[in-house]
Amino acid sequence: MRTEARIFNLVAMFLFLAAGTYAWWTDAEMGEVDLIGTVVLILSGVLLAMCGLYFGFIARRIDPRPEDRPDGEIAEGAGEIGFFSPGSYWPLGLALAVIVAGVGVVYWWLWLIALGLLAVIMAAGGLLFEYYTGTRRGVHE
């Protein structure tokens, strides 16, 4: 986690530096500071700093992982990552539902947005509970 904390905090520092440089540059060029760009850079830096601080706090509470130690080996990080369904059609249904909702947003058709969001909820539920109901029940154990 220390590696992730360093990465997030370094990018946050860069964004804070970029916000200051951007504010100075726009003031020199336009005669006034571009508030929208400056605020966006500052808020992005704050968001990354929050993530970096969270990872830093977590890194103090857990033992160092192999990627956080200088003597860590690649083989130490090996092991079971998780279970991934090899023959599920639910990701395709979820993608189609997101496309329907996205087309509804593009044309601002509220009925299509509602239909797409309903389909997203249904497809996410199907993906989540695929191995708890039906013919695939207990397959992953």
Description of the molecule:
By secondary structure, this protein is mainly alpha-helical. The protein folds into 2 domains: 2-73; 90-136. It has helices spanning 2-30, 35-61, 90-107, 110-128. It is flat, with a radius of gyration of 23 Å.
Q: Which key phrases capture this entry?
A:
mainly alpha; single chain; 4 helices; 141 residues
Rg over CA atoms, rounded to whole Å, is 23 Å
Q: Can you write the helix and strand succession as a string?
A: HHHH
Overall pLDDT level: 90
Number of domains: 2
> Globular, elongated, flat, extended or rod-shaped: what is the shape?
flat
Major β-sheet profile: none
Unreliable spans are none
Count of strand segments = 0
Strand content: under 5%
Give a quick summary of the entry.
The protein is mainly alpha-helical and 141 residues long.
